């Protein structure tokens, strides 16, 4: 169903009238709860990971970085963030909200695979984690908490290349470039990681692309963010016991539904 709302503003012409257009309104006080408490005294549990701390963490994916945050439970069915979900303080993945630069990323239908994000640790300026009921101000899916990932837009011309290799034919490459100018600051990132897997049908091929642009329009700071992620991975025992190495084998054993 589509709903279209049209608002038409018609100019009014007043002739021969002297009108005072200034109004004085009473003060308005907003309360987020029953007791107004300064933010500095509010009992909110907030943890922030900055880029300097992220660089020291022995993890090459966002899910691996969040494993080092207290109270955050990463549930992944493969290495390097393959099919990963996130919970905070015992809450399920459908009760945790994921944001990128304040934009909602959580799937409203199932909340599943919420860590399939088009960003890599090298792209992150900081990660803000709000735990518990204080996250309710962010709306639905924020019952247990909120994870807000802030991407960085460097203000200097810079380009980096990251390479990695390891066991099980692990190969990875990352390209990053920042293009600042007087009118706009642009940041481009492309990362790809492949592996044959540590056992049968645990291979994966992950590609992430991210583009961010900050510019000023009519004196207002404007930001443009675009991302793309493609993930191909094996599913050995992901949806059943380890005896089921292939989804086809599992579906045959169950028979027609």
> Major sheet: order of its strands?
1-6-7-4-5
What composes the largest sheet? 5 strands, mixed
Q: Which runs of at least 5 residues are low in confidence (pLDDT < 50)? A: 1-17, 249-257
Termini gap: 32 Å
Q: How many domains make up the 3D coordinates?
A: 2
Please state the average pLDDT score: 78
CATH architecture of the largest domain: Beta Complex
Approximate shape = globular
**Oligomer status:** single chain
What fraction of residues sit in β-strands?
Answer: 35-45%
Structural class category: mainly beta
Percent range for helical residues?
A: under 10%
- Stated plainly, the CATH topology of the largest domain is called Ferric Hydroxamate Uptake Protein, Chain A, domain 1
In angstroms, what is the radius of gyration?
A: 24 Å
CATH class of the largest domain: Mainly Beta
Number of E-state strands: 12
**Quick one: CATH superfamily of the largest domain?**
TonB-dependent receptor, plug domain
**Total helical elements:** 3
What's the helix-strand series? EHHEEEEEEEEEEEH
Keywords:
globular, 3 helices, 2 domains, five-stranded mixed sheet, five-stranded antiparallel sheet, Ferric Hydroxamate Uptake Protein, Chain A, domain 1, 12 strands, mainly beta, disordered N terminus, 7% helix, disordered C terminus, single chain, 257 residues
């Amino acid at each position: 169903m589509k709903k279209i709302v049209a608002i038409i503003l018609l100019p009014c012409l007043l002739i021969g009238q002297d009108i005072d257009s200034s109004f004085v309104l009473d003060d308005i006080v907003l309360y987020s709860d029953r007791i107004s408490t300064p933010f500095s005294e509010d009992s909110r549990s907030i943890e922030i990971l900055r880029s300097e701390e992220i660089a020291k963490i022995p993890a090459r994916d966002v899910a691996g970085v969040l494993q080092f945050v207290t109270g955050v439970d990463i549930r992944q069915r493969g290495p390097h963030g393959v099919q990963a979900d996130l919970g905070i303080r015992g809450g399920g993945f459908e009760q945790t909200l994921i944001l990128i630069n304040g934009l909602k990323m959580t799937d409203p239908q199932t909340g599943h695979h919420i860590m399939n994000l088009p960003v890599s640790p090298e792209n992150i300026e900081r990660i803000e984690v709000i735990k518990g009921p204080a996250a309710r101000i962010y709306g639905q899916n924020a019952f247990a908490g909120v994870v807000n990932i802030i991407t960085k837009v460097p203000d200097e011309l810079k380009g980096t290349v990251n390479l990695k290799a390891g066991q099980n034919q692990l190969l990875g490459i990352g390209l990053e470039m920042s293009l600042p100018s007087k009118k706009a600051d642009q940041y481009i990132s492309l990362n790809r990681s492949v592996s044959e897997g540590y056992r049968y049908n645990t291979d994966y091929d992950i590609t992430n692309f991210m583009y961010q642009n900050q510019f000023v329009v009519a004196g207002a700071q404007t930001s443009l963010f675009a991302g793309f992620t493609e993930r191909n991975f094996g599913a050995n025992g992901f949806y059943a016991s380890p005896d089921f190495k292939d989804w086809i084998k599992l579906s045959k054993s169950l028979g027609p539904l």
